[in-house]
Write a structure and sequence with these properties.
The chain is α+β, with helices and mostly antiparallel strands. The chain is built from 28 helices and 33 strands. A hairpin with a 5-residue loop joins strand 18 and strand 19. The longest helix has 24 residues. Belongs to the peptidase M1 family.
Length: about 900
Amino acid sequence: MLQLRDGQEQPLAIRREDYVAPAWWIDTVDLTFDLDPAKTRVLNRMRLRRNPDSVGGPLRLDGDELNLARVLVDGQGASFRMEADQLVIDNLPDSFELEIFTTCCPVKNTKLMGLFVSENTFFTQCEAEGFRRITYFLDRPDVMASYTVTLRADKAAYPVLLSNGNLVDSGELPEGRHFAKWVDPFRKPSYLFALVAGKLVAREQRITTRAGKEHLLQVYVRAGDLDKTEHAMNSLVHSILWDETRFGLPLDLDRFMIVATSDFNMGAMENKGLNIFNTKYVLANQATATDADYGNIESVVGHEYFHNWSGDRVTCRDWFQLSLKEGLTVFRDQEFSMDLCADASARAVKRIEDVRVLRTAQFPEDAGPMAHPVRPDSYIEISNFYTVTIYEKGAEVVRMMQTLVGRKGFEHGMSLYFKRHDGQAVTCDDFAQAIADANLDSELSRLLPQFKRWYSQAGTPRLAATGSYDADARTYTLRFTQSCAPTPGQPLKLPFVIPVNLGLLAQDGRELPLQRDGESEATLHTRTLVLTEASQQFTFVGIDAEPVPSILRGFSAPVVLDFDYTDTQLLTLLANDLDPFNRWEAGQRLALRSAIQAIAASSAPTAVLDDAYIGAMREVLRDPKLDAAFKELVLTLPSETYIAEQLDVVDPQRIHAVREAMRVQLATALFVEWEQVYEQHHDTGAYTPDPLSAGRRALSGMALTFLCLAAGESGDTVWPGKTLQRFKDAGNMTDRFNALSALVSSGHALAAQALARFHAIFKNEALVIDKWFSLQAGSPDRGGHVLPLVKQLMKHPDFSVKNPNRARSVIFSYCSANPGAFHRPDAAGYVFWSDRVIELDAINPQVAARLARGLDRWSKLAEPYRSAAREAIVRVAARPDLSKDTQEVVQRALAD
C-alpha cells in the first residue's frame, strides 16, 4: 500500500450501496447572474421542501471555491455553519424559500468546471459536480428542479446571453448593460444547467417536425467560424428527424442551441436545450476538416441531441448509473450513424470502427487497475469514471438487449421506458426492466436477473470454443466455455448471458443452412445462440463435411473469442464470409498471429508475414466488389497497443520493431497494387464527406503511405515527390493531411518542408494546428527523436498547456498514442510523463487524471520498463498537493 506523505489525506470512497435519497427536494430555482470575469455575482433563490421519505437531518449544500455573502431563510437572516465545503443549515421548516448570494472568479477557473471564461466568453460545465462551483446547492442528479435564469452583463462585451429553455424576456439596463431571462419548462438536475455569454454569431434554421411543430435551431460560434457550421447544423437536423422516426421521440423545446468553445475538457455536454461543444466537434469545412472530423461531428452532435431524452428527460438517480444515459446514448448514436449509411457495406465499416475502439481501449481497461463494472460499485472522483467501460461497453450491453429482443422489440421497450420514467431520475435496473417488460416472451425477459451481471461484473469474458465433426452422423458440434478473470474487488465471476451470432461455411466458402439437433427444418445464414452456463454445446445436423464456423458475427457480444482456427480456415473466412465483421476479423487474426510469432522469435524481424497472407491482402486490394473503406480496414494492421494486450509480458520496442517490419513488408510486397489503388482512387471529384467518397480517400491515403514507405526502403524519390505535390495540390484537408502523414510516417526528408508549409497555411486555424502538433508527437520513433521533438513542440508559440485540445495534441499523442516512442529504455518518456501529470494536475485535474491513465498497464511491461514506469507513478503519487482525481488513478495503478 502506498504510504501518503504527512498532511496528504486519503480521499474517501463513495459507495453505491450507501445511496440514500436526499433529505430535501428543491422545486424551483431562480438564478440571477451579474457577469464579470473577475467577480461574478450569483443570487440563488430556491424553494425547498423536506423529503418525507428520507431519514431527515439538516440541509447540506455543496460548494467549491465560492465566496459566501448572504444566506436568508424566508427573507430572514439564518444561522449556518461550514463543514468542509458544505453549507449546513439546521432547524428549518418543512417548506421554505432559501436565498444565497455568492461570488466567484470565472477568469481564474483553469479547471474548466463550473463557470469559466474562454477567450472573453463565459461558459459553464456542470457535469458531474460543477454546479457547486457556481452556487451552494444539492449538487446530485436525483434532485430535479424547475429553473428560471436571468443573465445581466455589459452589452458591448457580451451581446449574446444564453441559458437553458426558452427566452421569455430581454432588454436594456443602465450603464450600457442588458439582460436576458430564460425559463426551462422541464425539471432537470443541476448538472444540466448551462449559461453562455459573449460575442458570438449563429447559423439558424427553422424546421417543422413530423408532429407539425416548428422549432428554431441555432449553432453559435465566434465570428469568422460561421462558414464551418453547415455540417453541424445538418447533423442536428438529421438527428432530430431520426429520433422522431426511429423511436418516436420528438424535439420538445421551441429552440435548440449548440455553442462551440475551444477550451473544454470534454467533447460536448448535453445541457437541456443548450448544448456546449468542443469546437473540434462543431467546426468543419473541406479546407480544414478531414473525413474523420466530419464523421465525428455527425456522431457527437447526434449523441448530445439524443441525450435530450436519454439523459435529460430521464436522468440518473446517482452517478453509479452513469451508463444509464451514456451507454444507451452511445448505442443510439452508433445506430444513427449506421442508419444514415446508404448501404450494408458502409454500415459494416461503422460497426468495425466501433468495435476497434472497444477492443483497443476498453478491453485493456477491463484488464487493468481501473477495471470497473458498467455500473461501478464505488468511486473517489466521479470524473475518473467517464470511461470507455461506461460509454462503449455500456453501449454493447444495450446492443445485446436489442439482439435478444429484436429491433422492433427494442423500440417497444424504449417507448415503455420513457412512458414509465419521463421526468424521473432512475437506475440501470429500471431501463433493463422496461425493455424486458415490453418483450415478455423474449430471452431477455426470461434471463433478466442473469443478464444484469453485465452491469455488476467487471472484466472482459473469454469465450473458448471448440468444434468437432462426426462424418458418420453428418453432425457438427460446437462447445463453448466462458470465463472471466479476476478484477479489483471481484475475484470470482458468475456466467454471463452471451448472445453468439453464428454461421457455418463449407470449405469452398458457401454458406451452409443451420439446423440444430431436434429441429424439424433448417434456417439460412446467421442464427443467434444464447449462452448462459459456464459450458454449453450445440449440435448441427445435415452437415456433409467439416465446416468453418463463423462465430460472433457482427461482434454480437463484447467478449474475447478463443477458437483455434487454422490459417486455411481464416483465409476461407477472409475470402468468403458473408459477415463483413468476421471477414475483417479473419485478416486481423492472421496478422496478429504472425506478429506474436515474430515477437517471440530470437532473431530480429524481417519477413514477418507469410506468402499466404500477402496473397490474401493482394486479392482484397484487387477485388472490385469490395468497397474502398472496407479494404482500408482489412489492410490496417493491429495496433501496437492491441498486440501488447495479447501478451503476458510486453516489450514495447520489440512490438514496435515487428509491426514496422510488417508495414514495410506490406509496402514492398504489394507495391504494384498500391500504385494501382492510388491511381484508381485518388480522384474523388467534388468534395463530399459521404461514406463512399471518404472510403476512396482513406484507401488512396493508405496507398500513399505505403508507397512512401517502400520508397524509403529502396531509395526511390519518385513517390515522395508525388506525395509532396499531392500535398500542395489537394483540394480538401483529408487528401492534404493524408499526404502530409505519408511523408511524416515514412521519415522522408521532404516531411520537414511539408510541415513548415502546412503551418504557414493554417497557422490561424486552431483545430488544424492541433493536427499538426499531433502528427509530429505521434510519428514513428527513429533513433529516439520523438521525445526531443515533443519537448521542442511544447516551446512553440502556438502551444499552451492550459488548453485541453492543445495539451492532448502534443502530450497525449506522445504518452498515450505512441508506445514505440514513449516506452524508451532510458526511461526518459516516463520522466516526461510524470512531469506533465504533475504540471497539469495543478491546472486542470481532469486532464491530468486522463494522462495518468497512460501507465495503467505498467505491470505487464518487461524490464527495464516495468521498474522505471513504477518509479514514475510513485513520484506522482507522492506529491502532497495531488488532486483526488489524479490520486485515485495513480494509487489504483500502484495497487495493481
